[in-house]
Amino acid sequence: MKGWQALFMKEVLRFWKVSFQTIAAPVLTSVLYLLIFGHVLEDRVEVFDGVPYTAFLVPGLVMMSVLQNAFANSSSSLIQSKIMGNLVFLLLTPLSHWSWFWAYTLSAVMRGILVGFGVWVATALFVWQSPVLHLNLLPQHPLWALVFALAGAGMLGALGLIAGLWADKFDQMAAFQNFIIMPMTFLSGVFYSIHSLPSFWLGVSHLNPFFYMIDGFRYGFFGQSDVSPWLSLGIVSAALLLVSALALHLLRIGFKIRG
Question: Closest by alpha carbon to 112, among 185, 182, 181, 63?
């Protein structure tokens, strides 16, 4: 087994051993979002033609869960290792910065996809069994949905690496998540179509790369989106490359992990 594969397996086992917390809990949270927002806003919010609001919520909640959990996996693992002092054992190995990057990012992608799949199954079953909705939430364009899910999880996994390298304590990590990740996620069209926003906030939404991830992923389900899926794919790909390049650079120079 290669070095990066061993580190990858370590990271996967780390979150899998506490799967009730890392996988089941986010699924439950998303189902609660669906129950609350779907019940309150079902007859009050109009989104895509022929798509009930509760069904519209499902892809947004799935992608939100993918993004948040991919970020949480790589960032929490790195900051915990730094604070507990066991990161030194990794520094003693001959692993390259590429090995670190692939192991942490791919494990983050795996956790994000597992949580997203769990959210999709749980929320889709709820929508399908509803006597009012009774919709089949299988993606109309599954390849589009898969591409955006993988690209989004990869970008947030790399961003989690950057946050984990930058933060020296849990308070700094919490600030990064609460003031950057959470606002960008919730202001990305998870719960609404951005065309319902005033012109100022509509313009702001177009500057948010999270919006393009969620909008492109939603296109995979309904064949409808607020912007072209090709535009979304181009912006998400550029953001993924930019964040990955920065994470690789910080790992290469040993930012805040090597004296």
Answer: 63
Query: How deeply is 203 buried, as exposed, middle or buried, from its count of CB atoms within 10 A (0-12, 13-18, 19+)?
Result: exposed
Taking a C-beta distance cutoff of 8 angstroms, is the pair 239, 209 a contact?
yes
Q: Which residues contact 47 (CB under 8 A, 6 or more apart)?
A: 53, 56, 192, 193
Work out the angle at residue 230's Cα, subtended by the Cα atoms of residues 163 and 179, and round it to the nearest 5 degrees: 25
30, 123 Cβ separation under 8 angstroms: yes
Q: In which region does residue 216 sit, left (phi positive, over 0), alpha (psi from -120 to 50) or beta (all else)?
A: alpha
pLDDT band of residue 259 (cuts 50, 70, 90) is low
Answer whether 12's CB lies under 8 Å from 103's CB: no
Strand, coil or helix: 253: helix
Q: Which residues, in sequence order, are CB contacts of 195 under 8 Å at separation 6+?
A: 202, 226
Tokens of 21: 């917390």
Residue 189, SS3?
Answer: coil
Q: Tell me the pTM.
A: 0.92
The whole-angstrom separation of Cα 231 and Cα 234 is 5
Taking Cα atoms as reference points, which of 211, 218, 228, 224 lies closest to residue 50?
224
Q: Are 133 and 217 in contact (CB under 8 A)?
A: no
Local structure of 14: helix, strand or coil = helix
pLDDT given for residue 85 in this prediction? 86
In the block, residue with structure tokens 């990057």: 101
pLDDT in tens, 122-138: 988 777 665 555 566 78
Residue 10 amino acid letter: K
How far apart CA 136 and CA 190 sit, in angstroms, is: 20
User: Is-contact 97 51, C-beta < 8 A?
Assistant: no
